[in-house]
Design goal:
With 357 residues, the protein is mostly helical. 84% of the residues lie in helices and 0% in strands. Helix 9 runs antiparallel to helix 13 and helix 13 runs antiparallel to helix 14.
């Protein structure tokens, strides 16, 4: 009996249906899968600490607990420092409101002088175009705070699972490795271990590089903002650097708030231009020198795929999906490169090799 070969259209239809079902369940199980994937990546990042503690003759469970405890302490310190900066920034809001009012009046006068549009007409137009959004907000105001509190509680509840997942990933890591040996029993254990080690190396390199780049970029942003005399330079500088978890556009998003602050708090708009110049210059350094030097070729994803992954991650899981997009694509590339039939897909995900066709 001859082996029957399915036509291409049938294979394509089957693949499309499979992807559709996969995406559907990824969306339905978002609250479970997002903390799970975040915990997986964080576990790979702190695994060297657990291994080091075990080499000091600590038991697996004690090493896992101490490593997780250290991770929680560092996370709490970072959250505390960020919250104090946000609280200080909140104290500045009345001053910003006064500056914004003055700035808004100046814009009104400029529009009136150059376009002969009276202030009352300007305000009427603003109310006209803002009625829909404002009306929607007021009509749903009764349930807004309830929904906000409910959403916040759900997010905190889901995120609280991350340390639990991380502990089990650290404690059962040999158990999981054996599972993959049994799952791919037709492949040699050495080959499976190579793929798993490569995934670990790629994720660890990505996270280590991201932290290093964040510190460098945050410092450069802060120095530039301090030179310009922008208030809360440290906060704004490292906020934009932290948003590097969102590839390509993260630092640009982080520059919007300090530009607005510069426009409101400074007498000349040239300060806002200077802030924009600082972030554009740092973005240029980050993309062309800092990230390539720090991360190198260990996480080699081409720009087009990274942008597509960013958009798909945003559509699927929002901000969390954007942050997880690059490490997920890097993991998929490692898997595709290891499977002969999937190597073309691994090739298209990576950076083109110059000088080769």
């Amino acid at each position: 009996m001859k082996n029957y070969q399915f036509p291409f259209i049938a294979k394509f239809a089957f693949a499309l249906i499979s992807v559709t079902i996969l995406v559907y369940w990824l969306m339905v199980l978002q609250d479970i899968l997002v903390p799970f994937f975040i915990a997986t990546i964080f576990s790979m990042a702190i695994l060297p600490v657990a291994n080091w503690l075990e080499k000091k003759r600590l038991s697996r469970i004690l090493a896992s607990i101490l490593t997780l405890f250290l991770f929680i302490i560092i996370s709490v310190i970072i959250i505390y420092l960020a919250s104090t900066q946000i609280a200080d920034f909140g104290d500045m809001l009345p001053q910003l409101e006064q500056k914004f009012t003055l700035w808004f009046n100046q814009i009104q006068r400029w529009v009136q002088e150059n376009f002969n549009v009276g202030k009352r007409t300007q305000i009427a137009n603003l109310k006209k175009y803002g009625t829909g959004m404002l009306g929607t907000g007021l009509s749903t105001g009764g349930s807004f705070f309830t929904n906000a509190l409910s959403t916040t509680g759900n997010v905190l509840g889901d995120m609280s699972l991350i340390p639990i997942y991380m502990f089990f990933f650290l404690y059962y890591r040999d158990f999981f490795r054996t599972f993959f040996h049994k799952l791919f029993h037709q492949v040699s254990k050495k080959k499976v271990d190579e793929v798993l080690n490569r995934i670990y190396e790629v994720v660890r390199s990505y996270l280590t590089g991201l932290v290093t780049v964040t510190l460098i970029v945050g410092s450069l942003n802060t120095i530039g903002l301090l030179i310009l005399g922008i208030d809360y330079a440290v906060f704004f500088g490292f906020l934009a650097a932290f948003l590097l978890v969102i590839p390509f556009i993260g630092i640009l998003i982080g520059s919007i708030l300090p530009i607005i602050i510069a426009l409101i708090t400074k007498d000349s708009p040239m300060y806002a231009v200077g802030v924009a110049g600082v972030f554009v210059f740092v973005q240029f350094l980050e993309g062309n020198f800092i990230t390539p030097y720090v991360v190198g070729s260990k996480v080699s994803i081409n720009g087009l795929v990274a942008i597509i992954a960013l958009l798909l991650g945003s559509a699927l899981w929002g901000i969390a999906g954007m942050a997880l997009s690059l490490p997920t694509i890097a993991i998929l590339k490692v898997i595709f490169d290891a499977v002969p039939d999937l190597k073309p897909y691994g090739y298209i995900l990576g950076e083109p090799v110059r000088g080769k066709k």
